[in-house]
């Protein structure tokens, strides 16, 4: 059974950092493009970052560029999202998703490109 499990969320003060993990079971992540999305209450799901399956290229939403970094550890079958300089507007439930195709770039921030989704992890940025 293909499964994605996010972890690493929590409460952090503005300016702080968190590292989210997306662990896969039932399939090998390095053959999939992985995206990170977030959804705040009352808002649509928003693409944050993605990493391609082919060459490991990455792409970021303008709102997180320079603050967030996506990476993958194929040996651990895990993708990470390092989040620095967090702001209250980063508060949301964060989801990872996997695409068995070849999505990348800006297209990789579109939720309908993805086949498999995790359950999400809450990130709250507040003083």
Task: Give a nutshell description of this structure.
The protein is an all-beta fold. The protein has strands at 3-7, 10-12, 18-25, 33-39, 46-51, 58-60, 68-73, 78-83, 92-99, 116-117, 121-125. It is globular.
Could you walk me through the main structural features you see in this protein, from its secondary elements to its overall organization?
This protein has no helices and 11 strands. It has strands at residues 3-7, 10-12, 18-25, 33-39, 46-51, 58-60, 68-73, 78-83, 92-99, 116-117, 121-125. By secondary structure, it is mainly beta. Strands 2, 4, 5, 6, 9, 10 and 11 form a 7-stranded mixed beta sheet that branches. A 4-stranded antiparallel beta sheet has the order 1-3-8-7, with no helix packed on it.
* C-alpha end-to-end distance: 40 Å
Globally, the shape reads: globular
- Please count the beta strands (DSSP E, at least 2 residues each): 11
- The number of distinct helices, counting runs of at least 4 residues, comes to 0
Coarse structural class: mainly beta
- Give me the Rg, rounded: 13 Å
Largest sheet, in brief, is: 7 strands, mixed
Strand proportion = over 45%
Helix content: under 10%
Sequence-ordered SSE layout with sheet pairings:
Blueprint: E1 3-7, E2 10-12, E3 18-25, E4 33-39, E5 46-51, E6 58-60, E7 68-73, E8 78-83, E9 92-99, E10 116-117, E11 121-125
Parallel strand pairs: 2-11
Antiparallel strand pairs: 1-3, 3-8, 4-5, 4-9, 5-6, 7-8, 9-10, 9-11
List keywords for this structure.
127 residues; mainly beta; 7-stranded mixed β-sheet; 4-stranded antiparallel β-sheet; 11 strands; 0% helix; 46% strand
């Amino acid at each position: 059974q293909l499964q994605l499990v996010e972890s690493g969320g929590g409460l952090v003060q503005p300016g702080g950092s968190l590292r989210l993990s997306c662990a896969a079971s039932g399939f090998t992540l390095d053959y999939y493009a992985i995206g990170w999305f977030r959804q705040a209450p009352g808002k649509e799901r928003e693409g944050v970052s993605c990493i391609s399956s082919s060459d490991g290229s990455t792409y970021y939403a303008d709102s997180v560029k320079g603050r967030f970094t996506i990476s993958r550890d194929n040996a651990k079958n895990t993708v990470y999202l390092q989040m620095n300089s967090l702001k209250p507007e980063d508060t949301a439930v964060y989801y990872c998703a996997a695409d068995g195709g070849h999505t990348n770039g800006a297209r990789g921030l579109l939720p309908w490109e993805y086949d498999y989704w995790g359950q999400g992890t809450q990130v709250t940025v507040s003083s």
